[in-house]
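note to self — DONT lose this again. spent like an hour looking for the file last time. sequence + predicted structure for the chain T wanted, 178 res
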Amino acid sequence: MLWEKHTHKNEEQVDSGDQAEGLDLSWPSTGRARLTYIIWAPIILPLAFTIIDCRKEKNVKYYGFTFTMSIVWVAVYSYFMVWFATLAGDSFGISDYIMGLTVLAAGTSVPDLLTSVIVARQGHGDMAVSSSIGSNIFDITVGLPVPWILSNLVRGKPQVVSLLLLLFFFLSHDYFYY
């Protein structure tokens, strides 16, 4: 598997004391690799040029900037994900609430699932459980109130949140993640 190949490669680098390679942006030689490169380029290229690789010894001091830029890019990509989901929902006649509660909830839980599976396979079951629980706590304590606060600040008036919708979110949140 790809994951096992990269794990083995990373273990060899640690054992030999080599520096991490970083991202290779050179043009691939095969047709399939070129197609993959073209598909992923709009996502990878902005990241490669705006986020400093802190794995290199000389760049360790820039960890704060790297972390900040990572959060900025997560926000940018999240905005586009919600925008595209809204457009898709409008195209198919699906309401924004249904799109948000099903498609986006399922789509944002996939990375949590993958990281939990990876660390569980490495023998860190407690880390897998804490990751899934911690991400839900983060979603509820930061993911919900921060956009509402920003909306209040930008619009200058309170964001009205339906109690019924909020209750539905909390009840369905556990359903979609577990």
